[in-house]
Amino acid sequence: MSWILFKFVMVSHFRQRENMRTVELLSPARNLQCGIAAVNHGADAVYIGGPQFGARASACNTLQDIEHLVSYAHPFRTKVYVTLNTILSDDELEPACALIHRLYEAGVDALIVQDYALLKMDLPPIALHSSTQMDTRTSEKVQFLSDIGFSQVVLARELTLQQIRDISRKVKVPLEVFVHGSLCVSYSGQCYLSQVIMGRSANRGECSQPCRLSYDLYDADGRLLVEKKHLLSLKDMDRSAYISDLIDAGVSSFKIEGRLKEAEYVKNVTAYYRQAIDRALEGRPEVRRASSGSVRYTFRPEPSKTFSRGGTDYFLTDERGGISSPHTPKSIGEEVGTVGNVGRGFIDVEHCRVSLHNGDGFCFLSGNGTFYGFRVNRVEGHRLFVPASTEVWKALESGVRLRRNIDQEFQRLLSAENSGVRTVGLRMVLTETQEGYRLSLTDEDGLASRHEFEYEHNVAKQSEKALDSIERTLGKLGSTIYYPERIDVNIVTVPFIPASVLSEMRRKAVESHDRLRRLSYVRPLRKQPKSDVAYPERELTYLSNVHNHLAEEFLREHGVRSIVPSYERKPLQGVALMFCRHCIRYEIGLCAKHTNPDPLPIRETSVRYPLYMQTMNNRLRLEFDCSECEMRIYKADRTEV
Fold first, then answer.
1. Distances (CA, A) of 540 to 112, 139, 563
2. What's the pTM value of the predicted model, to 2 decimals?
3. What CATH topology corresponds to 324-404?
4. Looking at CB atoms within 10 Å, which of 326, 372, 456, 568 has the fewest?
5. Quick one: fold of 18-183+235-305?
6. Tens of pLDDT along 464-477?
7. SS3 for 386-449, per residue?
8. pLDDT tens-digit profile of 210-229?
9. How far apart are CA 629 and CA 640, in angstroms?
10. Strand 110-113 relative to strand 21-29: parallel, antiparallel, unpaired?
């Protein structure tokens, strides 16, 4: 095949693929190890923090590691996004711009950002995606972000399936939604509680997670209603049952939360959603996955076996119940059974639904609502040998529901380097030329290459044995990213080619195809902004997080007349510090609109509003906007009880 013909085949194939809608599994990476794990276990894209300015300040990575991840991911057509999603101070604008240029040079596919200042900078043509901190809930906001140059827009976690569907119908831009992982109790970007309590801004990447603390709840008369419960702690999101519905609703990117999680979590959850998305894509010829390759796993993915607080679809179906985790912010894992006989140094598990292992970790909720956890030294069948020194003995009793939050055997499988092996399908065709042989390679993306080798033509004495040897030798692709999807020997008379010669042919051909595959990768370009686009609002409060002069200039250029600076730049008194769809009034069974079938017990049957939460020396006032089904949290002033 001539170069011109090869080029035509490659381009026409890509044009056909470009006309198809793609669906992306977007996985988190705390570091390079987690990023490679995400790629190996099926991610179509990986998001990772850079050296600075990411919303997880403790999950920073060097440019060298990011460049390594890019080099590893792109052969699989997996994209790498870098989070640069804090609000920037004026003295950070120039360093941020310089960093973006270096990230572009490292091969990064897109930036995830929230600060409008970046749109005023002289940036390279790198794609921009909106961060969840931009708090995007309306089609008008989505349209604005699309018009000013965002290639992908992430929607607020709190939106229902119908709201997502409505936005998708109105705005033609790839939509990203969270499908799994830890939940912020407040609308993202609208939480200032960490800033007030600990002096650490969530919008600056330093959230101290006050939502995971325990609180006492009081009414307006100072009566204690609930003692030492994690009133703001939520279960983890799990929308795996709604992947097909979300695809039908127009979602293009399915995001897993977890940039502070370890590699085992990334492996397990990525693999689980890879399988769920692949099942959903069956029978949808108009939709394809956004990257290449298939994955073989040495384990059966199950999210409850790595960090899990229990699952919730989190308002996707517009249902309010079952989203909170008031007893503990820790992982509760999977259900095991109930405690039966309690003996001296051991307990028996009844109705056990899983295999138990030495070293497993277990947890349970006692009758008085206290959460306990313990590890076992030894297991015999369904009998657990519990160390005598552990405090759980005072709460272990027959009938307690037992959960396992550390599965030792599962962790062993996950920690293996080859727990997920990803490969790209390759068709290999061997033909004869006048001077020797030609090995033609075509991968699953349609990229084709031909490689000719000089070698004498010798007829094999034992044709079946020779043919089998040729196919086996060509198929030995174990050290590459490929697997032999099909091998054809298109030669009338089977030749004899020594295995060493054939191996060298294969090696050189695959190396050359690797170079072609890398060179043919095309990064997405920055979307061109439209002119004369108006921001949906004319007056902006502290909730818009305008932290620097460039962001203010940009918004004024787009029609905003009044701008209140960010809370971090100019703290305000008496304003709401958190906005939540989670409602404590509902959780304790006092909602006027919805009945909670399993409310958190309270000590008083009648209460007087407002309600207050207390943790350490911090007292917070709760206000409830029942018309919007929204709870707001304020710092209580000194005059309040």
1. 22, 18, 5
2. 0.95
3. Thrombin, subunit H (2.40.10)
4. 456
5. TIM Barrel (3.20.20)
6. 999 999 999 999 99
7. CCCCCHHHHCCCCCCEEEEEECHHHHHHHHCCCCEEEEEEEEEEEEECCCEEEEEEEECCCCEE
8. 999 999 999 999 999 999 99
9. 25
10. unpaired
